[in-house]
Amino acid sequence: MTEYVIFLIGISATVFSLWSTVPQISKSLKTKKTDDVSKWLIISLIVGLSLWVIYGIMKGDIVIASANAIGVTLNLILFGLKIKYTVQK
């Protein structure tokens, strides 16, 4: 495979992976409810994606590092919404 094809696969993987968080953020902002979102899932994703960022930096792979940095950012936003909108019982 050419470097261009490999790059396109990486970018495509990034788009599909990150797009999964956007609808949840949008829904949370519209409904102001996050009771159905697991805080442990978000925390797990933040930790895992952060490790991918470190890995990407160490390997010198800008696609891995930047894609996962965006994922960390989106999940931090979702976690902030989770904290803000969770109903205290």
Tell me about this structure.
- This protein is mainly alpha-helical and 89 residues long.
- The protein has a single domain, classed as Monooxygenase (Up-down Bundle), CATH 1.20.1280.
- It is built from four helices and no strands.
- The protein has helices spanning 3-19, 22-31, 39-59, 62-85.
- Helix 2 runs parallel beside helix 4 (62-85) and helix 3 (39-59) packs antiparallel against helix 4 (62-85).
- The relative contact order is 0.18.
Write the layout of secondary structure elements.
Layout: H1 3-19, H2 22-31, H3 39-59, H4 62-85
InterPro entries: SWEET_rpt
Organism: uncultured crenarchaeote
Keywords: Membrane, Transmembrane, Transmembrane helix
Defining traits:
single chain, 89 residues, mainly alpha, Monooxygenase, 4 helices, 81% helix, MtN3 and saliva related transmembrane protein, transmembrane helix, SWEET_rpt
